[in-house]
Amino acid sequence: MMLSAWSSGLRNKLSLPLRVELWDGRQLEFSSELPGGAAPGVATPRVTIRVPDRSALRYLRSPSLYSLGRAYVEGAIDIKGRAADIISVGNTLAANLAGSSNRFADALRLGFPRAPHTREKDAEAIRYHYDVSNDFYSAWLDPGMVYSCAYFENGMEDLATAQQKKIDHILRKIDVRPGQTLLDIGCGWGALVLRAAQQFGARCVGVTLSENQAALARERIARAGLQDQVEIRLQDYRDVKGQFDRITSVGMFEHVGVQHLKAYFLQVDKLLAPGGVVMNHGITTTNADNSATPYGGGDFIDEYVFPDGELAHLATVVQAMQEGGLEVRDVENLRRHYAKTCALWTDNFENNAEHIRTLTDEKRFRIWHLYLAGCAYAFAHDRISLYQIVCGKAGGDAEAIPWSRNYMYP
Asked: What superkingdom heads the lineage (predicted)?
């Protein structure tokens, strides 16, 4: 591309806190921000893209979130700055400079069949994402190791408080009572089943496909002396037997696959005891056709973060629940809460960057550097959302359904 024409065109179109450093020492400035009344040309950009050779210029010619993210992760370019600023600049570049081919690619991918969600493939995908190391996750999660949307009752809570409030919010919504059995599908490091047993008196089973998660969850349960009350299984949800009074699924059904949602909820219904209550807490797309987020952001996550992960629209989820034998009783949108959660995770990640770099390789560090801030941006801009959906068996006893939501908000 003609570099001078490209840079002039970008300056005429946009003002960005961006500097591009070229392999020959030249610097292209695109920021009109002049802090402290500084003279033109000396503004300090919040984001710097370093282009090591001429061939890497192609990533700037028609940038998408996928192409820019891939170039950064694979080391074809370097990007400096806070993750939130990098994501904001990347979205602006993609929205204004991405060619029609990028938008066409997002539409075209809908026509290709997704990978089958076999037990083996799903276990492999879960291990890729979650079995980095427990130390890696503990470096930026809250002390309870809760890896899902927090609940900010008034917006001022710290992350640890908001995560405990989220767990209590879920357990109150399903009205769990002492002695009841609770199944947590995708139990993570065990925070929800621990809380359900300790504070609500439930007898719990948690299932996960991550060996690292299962090992730490069992350690935490042993330290709490709850081995007789809580069981952690390394097990696929499709292989669980029996029935449970309460079922929770928090941040797990995104791995199921849109085409498999009906079968997933049929299994949930099979596992739910008569009169039981289930809550599904999960991320959804805001695209009614279940398509990916724009400018290749979803493709980046699919390749580097969540292999074979798929997001469904709320309407698709509700339909699949009904087809799976469940009646939807309550729906709550926590999109704003997840934007704040991801922003706090991003801050923790960057504030502990030096330590995190000792826990993983540079490529994975860069993946997560972009991913957490990218999710915060996507939630904040309504590209993806988070819904808690409370269900019971369709055609169940109407008398078992509370008259109001008062029991959820003591």
From this structure: Bacteria
Total-model pTM = 0.91
pLDDT band at 199 (very low <50, low <70, confident <90, very high): very high
Q: What pLDDT digit, counting tens, does each position of 219-261 carry? A: 999 999 999 999 999 999 999 999 999 999 999 999 999 999 9
Chain CA centroid to CA 52, Å:
32
Q: Which pair of tokens denotes residue 42?
A: 């000396």
Of 149, 187, 204, 375, the active-site residue reads: 375
- Domain 3-110 shares a fold with domain 119-408: no
At residue 36, does pLDDT exceed 60? no
68 φ/ψ angles, rounded to the nearest 5 degrees: -65, -45
pLDDT at 33 exceeding the cut of 60: no
What tokens does 293 get? 């987020």
375 is catalytic: yes
User: What pLDDT digit, counting tens, does each position of 283-302 carry?
Assistant: 999 999 888 788 888 889 88
- How much is the pLDDT for 31? 78
Scan for tokens 């008398």, then name that residue.
Answer: 399
Q: Is 207 helix (H, G, I), strand (E, B) or coil?
A: strand
3-state secondary structure of 249: strand
Q: Which pLDDT score, from 0 to 100, does residue 112 have?
A: 46
Q: Residue 189: how many CB atoms within 10 A of its CB?
A: 27
What is the fold of 119-408?
Rossmann fold (3.40.50)
C-beta separation of 339 from 379 below 8 A: yes
**Distance of alpha carbon 131 from alpha carbon 307, whole angstroms:** 13
**Every domain of the chain and the residues it spans:** 3-110, 119-408
272 pairs with which residues across the strands?
Answer: 244
User: CB–CB of 204/177 below 8 Å?
Assistant: no
Contact (CB, 8 A) for 346 and 399: no
Q: Which residues of 25-47 are buried (b: 16+ CB within 10 A; e: fewer)?
A: eeebbbbeeeeeeeeeeebebbb
DSSP 8-state secondary structure symbol assigned to residue 313? B
Sign of the four-CA dihedral 27, 32, 38, 41? positive
> Would you list the DSSP string of 329-389?
EEEEE-HHHHHHHHHHHHHHHHHTHHHHHTTS-HHHHHHHHHHHHHHHHHHHTTSEEEEEE
Q: Is domain 3-110 in CATH 3.30.1050, yes or no? A: yes
Tokens of 144: 């309870």
